[in-house]
Amino acid sequence: MWSLVFLGAGIFAVLVVLAFLARYLRLWLQSYASSAGIGLFDLVAMSFKKVNPTVIVRSKIMAVQAGLGDASGITRQSLEAHYLAGGRVPLVVQALIAANKAKMTELDYKLATAIDLAGRNVREAVQTTVYPKVIDCPGPTSGRDSLDSVAKDGIQLKVRARVTVRTNLNQLIGGATEETIIARVGEGIVSAIGSADKHSDVLENPDRISKTVLARRLDSNTAFEIVSIDIADIDVGGNIGARLQADQAEADTRVARANAEGRRAMAAAQEQEMVAGIEEKRAELVAAEAEVPKAIADSLNGGRLGIIDYYKLRNLQADTEMRKSIATAGPVSAAVDAAS
Question: Can you give the residue ranges of every domain in the chain?
């Protein structure tokens, strides 16, 4: 029985050793052969730290083979710390290797890990720094084909531009993205066209737009550095100034027409008021004339008016009515009466 126990323990020990060798010996041999400096016990300790030893060993080997050793900050401890922080260790090492080959001194291990933990693709940032990126303005997601602006002479211009940028690694953390660049460049182009006296000046020298926009330092506080702004296409639109003037003239006409209609209505109201006043005065006159016979009768009864005076008054009234009828009959009737 004891023989069987010792035999089982030996077999178990052999299996443990074989599993250990299968998991760590190959990585240790790779590290040893490439002078990565990661020992066998370091590999075992990584498993207890919940660190993938394969990722660390291969990343360290890449750095050493590219000439980036512990002096550049790429140590086993720093790689493990970045892995435990949730970083993408191989991506950071590849970015540092590319920056070293391109002789970019501004990117070190600390900055690379910070960019990676901030959620940016540090390898793509290095590639954009070496090989500048071209951004279309307006952007493809804006739903517009061109940037429209109107010169001082009222002519509309439609512009499409291409902005060449490269990554500013020092401002990549916290810097604005491509959308900000597109918005700022679009604003600068619209302002440059709007400040031109004639649209023909812009057509003759499209580079004046690029110079004006570049002079404003639109890449400040962004993750990119603008290399150049090129006008890809420029077209002439409609005469917006003339259209606006026509719309304004039509609006002024409607306002003047409304004001004239208001004055006409006011004049008609005043006329009606005057007609009503005339009728009121005429009624008062009729009422006063109705009192005249009564006053004459009272004067006759009181002896204040004699019969002779009354007939004279009647003759005067008849003469007045005859003259009034002759005056209102017209020139033809007056001539006939005169002839008769």
Answer: 2-130, 133-243, 306-340
What string of H, E and C letters represents the secondary structure of the chain?
A: CHHHHHHHHHHHHHHHHHHHHHHHHHHHHHHHHCCCCCCHHHHHHHHHCCCCHHHHHHHHHHHHHCCCCHHHCCCHHHHHHHHHCCCCHHHHHHHHHHHHHCCCCCCCHHHHHHHHHCCCCHHHHHHHHHCCEEEEECCCCCCCCCEEEECCCCEEEEEEEEEEEEECHHHCCCCECHHHHHHHHHHHHHHHHHCCCCHHHHHHCCHHHHHHHHCCCCCCCECEEEEEEEEEEEEEEEEHHHHHHHHHHHHHHHHHHHHHHHHHHHHHHHHHHHHHHHHHHHHHHHHHHHHHHHHHHHHHHHCCCCHHHHHHHHHHHHHHHHHHHHHHCCHHHHHHHHHC
Residue 321: both structure tokens together: 């009515």
What are the backbone dihedrals phi and psi of residue 4, each rounded to the nearest 5 degrees, phi first? -65, -40
pLDDT in tens, 133-184: 888 888 877 778 888 888 888 888 888 888 888 888 888 777 778 888 888 8
Q: What is the homologous superfamily of the domain 133-243 according to CATH?
A: Band 7 domain (3.30.479.30)
